[in-house]
Amino acid sequence: MRDTLYANVPFQLSEMPHRYGPNVHLVGNPFLLSQLAKLCSKGTVQPEINRLVAVLYTDLVKMVINAEFPRKMVAMPTRMIDHTPQGMYQGEVIDPAVRAVTVNIARAGTLPSQVAYDLLNTTVDPVLVRQDHIIMSRMIDAKEHVVGSNIGGAKIGGDIDDAIVLFPDPMGATGGSLSTAVTMYKEKVPGTPRRILSLNLIVTPEFLRRISREHPDVVVYALRLDRGLSPPEVFGTVPGELWEKERGLDDRQYIVPGGGGFGEIMNNAYV
User: Fold this and answer.
1) Report field, pTM of the whole predicted structure over 0.90
2) Is residue 2 part of a domain?
3) Rounded to an integer, what distance in angstroms lies between the CA atom of residue 103 and that of residue 118?
4) 18, part of any domain
């Protein structure tokens, strides 16, 4: 008879209250919000910006693994098994047999996806982990308004049947890039995924509205909601309570307060 203390390990995500529905998780974490504030500060450039992005995504991916990945019971001998029959750990662990695919939406998503890929390889069987790559750019009109997203190329290494598919992309602005990428996976990549997850540092109400409308099965995990251009009556309300009035994008579809163009700063490439 062994102790079953860890036969059912509870995990509860710390979340900010909102009215966006059950598939949106606004993580409430003072440490990560502090690091994100530094990341968005005007003077933060290389190499600090990449260090902060890696710190933030390391913790965010761990939260998602705890909340979303299946578990299994194990009985694993420890090094004490040579000394006593009780030298055996029995309890839940993350199921190493789950398939996982992380999608790099270049440019800003390259480092976040690599962080996710490395963590997944240490959590589940690496044979079941894959990283895909999508080259995507915003399409703008003559007035520099974002009118859509264009996929310039992709390297997809297989099917997504029964896989947990992660899209780690720092800025959830209009939702156009994510929606385009998810549509491509649903229509052109074989298999039915177990779960589709969006991992963002910052999202806007506009992003959440578009994703909930076009892909209601996508689950969003975000560290911060930015709605800085909303009318005064919105401030102080629970997010989503006045969803149609909430606004986080300026006329050029940049997030306010936001953090500027992460992709440009992370790559020192202002084009």
Assistant:
1) yes
2) no
3) 13
4) no
Phi-psi region of 156 (alpha: psi -120 to 50; beta: other; left: phi over 0): beta
Map residue 218 onto helix, strand or coil: coil
- Amino acid in the structure at residue 178: L
| 77 strand-pairing partners | 88
- Residue 157 is part of which domain span? 24-267
Say if 113 falls within a structural domain.
yes
Distance CA 34, CA 152 (A): 35
Q: Name the residue among 181, 174, 40 with its Cα closest to residue 102.
A: 181
Strands 163-168 and 195-203: parallel
Q: What is the pLDDT of residues 49-79, one digit of tens each?
A: 999 999 999 999 999 999 999 999 999 999 9
Q: What is the DSSP letter of 6?
A: B
Distance CA 69, CA 266 (A): 30
- DSSP per-residue string spanning 81-92: GGT-TT-EEEEE
Q: Cα separation of 269 and 49, whole Å?
A: 14
Q: What is the CA radius of gyration of the chain?
A: 20
Residue whose pair of structure tokens reads 């500060």 in the numeric block: 41
Q: What percent of the chain clears pLDDT 70, i.e. is strictly above it?
A: 94
Let me know how long the chain is. Answer: 271
Residue 270 neighbours by CB distance under 10 Å: 8
Q: Which residues are CB-neighbours of 137 under 8 A, at least 6 positions away?
A: 149, 150, 152
Q: What is the pLDDT of residue 251?
A: 92
Cβ contact 197:218 at 8 Å: yes
Residue 64: closest CA among 150, 8, 124? 124
The CATH number that applies at residue 166 is 3.40.50.2020
Count the domains in the chain.
Answer: 1
User: Among candidates 232, 44, 259, which has minimal Cα distance to 173?
Assistant: 259
